[in-house]
Amino acid sequence: MEEGKAAGLRRGRLPGGLTLRAMTPNAITTAALCSGLTGIRFAVTAASGTDPVQVAEDWRKAVAAVIIAGLLDGIDGRIARLLKAQSRFGAELDSLADNVSFGVAPALILFLWSLQEAPRVGWFAALAVAIACALRLARFNARIDIEDQPHKSAGFLTGVPAPVGAGLAFLPLYLWIATDDPLFRSPLLVGPWLVLIAFLMISNLATLGWSAMRPRRSVRLELIALVGLVIAALLTEPWLTLSAICIVYLLLIPVGVFRYAKVKRQRAASVRGEPLPPA
């Protein structure tokens, strides 16, 4: 029996039939979930702390934990496709983890950081983000087997993705950490900002996906250099760099809407048999 178990492990299979290959992306998803929950833990510690230096450090850790969850979420699906280990279980686990890490965690962190100063209205703003994330993920799961998805077939996304929405929701917190300006912590600023992000997450706006961003060959070397500079900036001035990334993403939303409108016109002209409009 021990020899059989050893042989199964050599073939990459755990006792009971679960392959190590299939377990790997699910383990990464679980790590992302744990990271998001740990962000909540740091926020609770910061909200009850008394040492200003330690409190500020705990807020940084809370945000960093959610960012790490986003990075893990960005690679688990790609690893699953690379290993050919996609499964319905993995898709459901990913949605549940995303709901906690990018809906519940940002809502609680921002409520404890700012919105509890106006608990009634602030709580509704925090709920808006958490509910919008859950609705977005439910919409995604409901459409996962539908072939006719105009945005997806053109390389666009529908609304702001959950990890990106969580990152955008933290923009006032990034600016507060970078500048220590109490203005960015005001519930009068944070509350409406969260409502706006919640709307963007569940909207039907066409937003740019990776497959829709196809740089010309003439600028690809410049883009590689830009990525290197951004990484260097993240290492030296992480909070200002994250703020700049959020602002650039927001500015790109109208670009996605415009580009998808052009794709719709081209599709309509093709269906009618008319000459395609100029690109």
UniProtKB/TrEMBL annotation:
Gene3D superfamilies: 1.20.120.1760. Residues 220-254 form the CDP-alcohol phosphatidyltransferase C-terminal domain. InterPro entries: CDP-OH_P_trans, CDP-OH_P_trans_C, CDP-OH_PTrfase_TM_dom, CDP_ALCOHOL_P_TRANSF_CS. Its EC number is 2.7.8.8. It comes from the Bacteria. One of its GO terms (biological process) is phospholipid biosynthetic process. GO terms for molecular function: CDP-diacylglycerol-serine O-phosphatidyltransferase activity. It holds the Pfam family CDP-OH_P_transf. The chain crosses the membrane at residues 121-142, 154-177, 189-212, 219-236, 242-261. Coiled coil: none annotated. One of its GO terms (cellular component) is membrane. Keywords: Membrane, Transferase, Transmembrane, Transmembrane helix. The keyword Transmembrane applies. Belongs to the CDP-alcohol phosphatidyltransferase class-I family. This is CDP-diacylglycerol--serine O-phosphatidyltransferase. The lineage of its organism: Bacteria, Pseudomonadati, Pseudomonadota, Alphaproteobacteria, Sphingomonadales.
